[in-house]
Design a protein that fits this description.
10 strands; 45% helix; eight-stranded parallel barrel; alpha/beta; TIM Barrel
């Protein structure tokens, strides 16, 4: 699977499901190598993205184990990957305790889900799946049982620590939310609007507290220091520099999410592709 160095991350809620094929085609034409679909999608939701493109990898970012049944997921994956070989990446995650009533023993639940994928009539190959991971134990499991880790809402320091935990070879694919806006006040307002939900989820807040941030950084919408570290803002060159910081820290794929934009972020994706040096 040719995942490449840079992809995009978005959801149908952000771009509109009716725009799926057009958005994916734009991403491919701009030179990005992957399209990560957020919003806890099931595998069939990837179809219009794959049908609208020829080369890019399309990934679930992420499929939620509490909302999914392994045998059905494996069957859906086999059908789609059979039509689009080496282009479907199954991103799997445990979700958040605030959003899932049955949330308990996340590591055990993930192991059980992976066991189910392995035991299915058409097993999902290890190198066609990755795990949403933040903490050391889930990172270790991602290296043991999948292609590697997809991280989310993390500073560069987490990417560096995650690479040390994973070792040299596994995938490390952080999502990087960003705001393309040169005016600092409005840019931070957009970043805070995006960050609000994540600063209320303890998976993310506990992780941030482990990487140099204090409770006061998380309170009241997030300190400037936290917001700037996790959600870079500025022009495309400044955002590209932040993406390259993650690469230098050990990421081998960075998926960029342009936030504070309504609909397909065509101008933002275009500017980022140029600044990253991937556009034709």
């Amino acid at each position: 699977m040719r995942l490449g160095e840079f992809g995009v991350w978005t959801s149908y809620r952000a771009i509109g499901g009716e725009n799926a094929a057009a958005a994916a085609r734009l991403v491919e034409d701009l030179g990005f190598s992957a399209f990560w679909l957020g919003g806890s999608p099931q595998v069939p939701a990837l179809r219009p993205l794959l049908e609208g493109t020829e080369r890019i990898v399309v990934a679930t970012g992420i499929l939620n184990v509490w909302q999914s049944e392994p045998e059905r997921v494996a069957r859906d994956f086999a059908e789609l990957s059979g039509e689009f070989p080496r282009r479907v990446l199954l991103g799997i995650g445990i979700g958040h305790p605030e959003a899932t009533r049955q949330y308990a023993k996340p590591l055990l639940a993930m192991r059980g889900f992976l066991d189910g994928l392995d035991a299915a009539a058409t097993a999902v190959p290890r190198d066609a799946r990755c795990l949403a991971a933040l903490g050391p134990k889930m990172l270790a499991l991602s290296a043991e049982r999948s292609l590697g880790a997809h991280t989310y809402f993390v500073p560069v320091a987490h990417t560096r620590a995650a690479r040390e935990r994973l070792g040299e070879l596994p995938l490390l694919a952080p999502e990087l939310a960003c705001v393309l806006d040169d005016e600092i006040k409005s840019a931070r307002a957009k970043a805070r609007a995006y960050a609000k939900v994540y600063l209320g989820l303890r998976n993310y807040t506990h992780n941030l507290l482990s990487f140099g941030f204090a409770p006061e950084d998380i309170a009241d919408g997030g300190s400037d220091r936290l917001i700037d570290a996790v959600i870079p803002q500025g022009n495309a060159d400044e955002i590209a520099a932040s993406a390259h910081q993650h690469v230098a820290a050990g990421a081998n794929h960075v998926c960029l999410q342009a936030v504070g934009v309504a609909g397909i972020p065509q101008s933002e994706w275009t500017a980022l592709a140029s600044a990253l040096g991937i556009s034709g």
